[in-house]
Amino acid sequence: MNIHEYQAKALLKKYGAPVSRGVAVFSPDEAEKAAAELGGPLWVVKSQIHAGGRGKGKFKEAEAGEKGGVRLAKSVEEVKTFAGQMLGNTLVTIQTGPAGKQVNRLYIEEGSDIAKEFYLSLLVDRETSRVAFVVSTEGGMDIEEVAHATPEKILTFSVDPVTGVQGFHGRKVAAALGLTGDLAKQASKLTDVLYSAFTASDMAMLEINPLIVTKDNRLVVLDAKVSFDSNAMYRHADLAELRDESEEDAKEIEASKYDLAYIALDGTIGCMVNGAGLAMATLDIIKLYGESPANFLDVGGGASEEKVTAAFKIITADPQVQGILVNIFGGIMKCDVIARGVIAAVKTVGLQVPLVVRLEGTNVEEGKKIIRESGLNVIPADDLDDAAQKIVASVKKGA
Predict the structure, then answer these.
(1) Distance CA 186, CA 216 (A)
(2) pLDDT over 70 (residue 128)
(3) Cys staple from 210: which of 106, 127, 140, 244, with CB 3.0 to 4.6 Å?
(4) Is the full-model pTM beyond 0.85?
(5) Which residues contribute to the annotated binding site for Mg(2+)?
């Protein structure tokens, strides 16, 4: 689960992180009021969307002006003008894709006098099963570019969960950033604060880009991007309330109601599979034969008929889908349950595109019989390779 920058900063502030003063607003009038309360002489007007690259992004609409999604204002009037241009318009960044995201809220923040910019993030290192710090002097840049061009400028280290953050971790961060004296002490404190926030809140990622040094020698978290482990949100009702569903795909929201693992993709073949590994293999083989998957959808090992029906409805609701592949290997999951769910869904929503079904495993013969006797135009497949070739051929034939 992702949250907005202003929400991330409010959370980090609770743990003692140094952040600039700012106010979240939803209208030009609120922006004007916030700017007046913050005082001047500089304000930063920031689009709040769940995507990076906002400053370099561009709005689709001409009335939004030529500037990006993060703008420096030199008067209260200019803050209001920028807010009017940005709110309700679509911002396209390197992370949103060409469709972009509509800006529904802004963060009005006091301006900062920047002396240096750094990069600092925390994430879960799956190789070590520990929380890792990623530190670089190249703040304000895409960390992927830094990793490609100058990897020596990135320091990565993990923290033993038994001991937690120790003094030497803070000194590592300070040394990597070239900080000494009081700034080194601030870096050490910030290291402890961020680790505490990360672990206590069940974060999956915390990225600060940039972390700045002001001209009066203060470390300040100038931007913050936070995502949480969705599986842990039952422990954090207060954090779950921060979810902004307008930033998410409607199909993914619907899938979450049925505990379906669904991720929307940009292809043409809808997939319903049980098991993450089999789902990944299904996506790969579709690509191998020249088409692209429209989604990743894992119904899980113990799905009910209702769950399968919901999954099928979500797939068919995607206008990009030109064909559907159901690929089930029945272990815990029973093939007859899948068959009944598919039949129920098709009878409810109709079937406008080719459907290939491959069933194998528990109750497979019963499942195949249910589909065979349903009277539906379903294409049976013997194995995964056969299924992939048939659905790709059907989609290409109909194109």
Answers:
(1) 13
(2) yes
(3) 140
(4) no
(5) 209, 223
Q: Is 119 a catalytic residue?
A: yes
Among the options 6, 107, 119, 258, which is catalytic? 119
Q: Identify the structural domains of the chain with CATH numbers, from first to last.
A: 21-110 (3.30.1490.20), 114-239 (3.30.470.20), 249-398 (3.40.50.261)
Q: Is residue 398 pLDDT above 90, yes or no?
A: no
pLDDT digits (tens, 9 = 90+) for 263-318: 989 899 999 998 889 999 999 999 999 999 999 999 876 667 778 888 888 998 88
- Give the pLDDT confidence of 15-45 residue by residue, as tens digits: 999 999 999 999 999 999 999 999 989 999 9
The pair phi, psi for residue 36, each rounded to 5°, is -65, -40
Marked catalytic residue, from 207, 258, 262, 291:
207
pLDDT at res. 345: 80
Annotated binding-site members for ATP: 46, 53-55, 109, 112, 117
Q: Is 207 a catalytic residue?
A: yes
Annotation: binding site: 46, 53-55, 109, 112, 117, 209, 223, 274, 331-333
pLDDT for 230 equals: 86
Residues 49 and 75 sit within 8 Å (Cβ to Cβ): no
The predicted structure's pLDDT at residue 37: 95
Checking if the pLDDT of 365 tops 70, the result is yes
